[in-house]
Design goal:
CATH architecture of the largest domain: Ribbon
Number of helices: 10
Structural class: alpha+beta
Shape: elongated
CATH class of the largest domain: Mainly Beta
Oligomer: single chain
Order of helices and strands: EEHHHHHHHEEHEEEEEHEH
């Protein structure tokens, strides 16, 4: 024999007692408990505030019953929760904090002149706050030029005669501050330290110490990234040959400071603030 069902309001769907309990729990019970805890209240304190029995609140929170509209809307005030927030609807109640709702109440309590004064003050504070954001963005970020040049971790790659410069914005650090240029690695001769496609920060210089990773220009070969050794430019990957600079006529372009990691790149919004800081603050 089929289990007895319970019709919904429209009479188009039948729910078992367990299904009704689960629906009550999802729609009311778990939310009442969560917002009660957020308000720092016990079930007994909420029951006292509503002037009902503690068991009634427990039954709501367990999904055994659901609150009548009268108690539900009284509960919104007691727990300081907007109906939209409680039911998960998109509305102003889900967007405003308690402090923001207080500000709205203050504004509504003012006369016309007071509202105008408050708006003028708020506008001034907003401008001041935005300027602080610009200063913070300027302090936190820095730009490094990328000329579109590649350094091969392999056979070499030629460089454009008239490169187009692009400023790449990064979170500032001692390494970023020292960098004069960003160069992109191609090939695999410097693996596992540097991989094909890595972008490296380069400090221009005329000489390197043995053991330094550098960018070199080799006639007929173009730009390469190698480790300077006593008499050669060394490939870390043993599958690739070393270069003998005195034979090839290699010149030093710069010292590789490190590669650009994902966490060094600001978001588009942060980069926009930095650009605005440069233009607006004339820094």
């Amino acid at each position: 024999m089929k289990a007895k069902g319970y019709s919904t309001i429209a009479g188009l769907e039948k729910l078992s007692p367990e299904e009704i309990k689960q629906r009550n729990l999802e729609t009311y019970g778990s939310k009442i408990k969560n917002f009660r805890n957020r308000a720092g209240m016990t079930a007994e304190q909420l029951a006292d505030a509503l002037q009902i029995s503690k068991s009634s609140v427990r039954n709501w929170e367990c999904g055994l019953t659901r609150p009548d509209p009268e108690f539900l809307y009284r509960m919104f005030t007691i727990l300081d929760v907007e109906p939209n927030e409680f039911f998960g609807f998109k509305g102003i109640g889900t967007l405003l904090t308690t402090e923001e709702r207080d500000l709205v109440d203050y504004y509504r309590s003012l006369d016309k002149s007071g509202k105008e004064d408050l708006l003028t003050f708020a506008e001034a504070m907003n401008k001041k706050s935005h300027k602080r954001k610009l200063m913070t963005a300027y302090d936190r970020m820095n730009g490094v030029e990328d000329w579109g040049r590649y350094a091969a971790a392999g056979d070499g790659t030629d460089w454009p005669e008239y490169p187009e410069k692009e400023e790449v914005i990064l979170f500032d650090s001692p390494m970023v501050s020292r960098a004069d240029e960003i160069i992109t690695v191609t090939g695999k001769s410097m693996e596992p330290q540097f991989h094909d496609g890595d972008r490296v920060l380069v400090e221009h210089c005329v000489d390197l110490r043995n053991g330094d990773i550098g960018i070199f220009y080799v006639p007929g070969m173009g730009g390469v990234i190698k480790q300077k050794a006593y008499d050669r430019l060394h490939s870390i990957n043993q599958d690739y040959d070393d270069i003998f600079p005195y034979e090839e006529g290699a010149t030093v372009i710069g010292r590789v400071l490190g590669k650009i990691e994902k966490d060094m790149i600001p978001s588009m919004e942060e980069q926009a603030l930095y650009q605005e800081a440069l233009e607006t603050l004339k820094l």
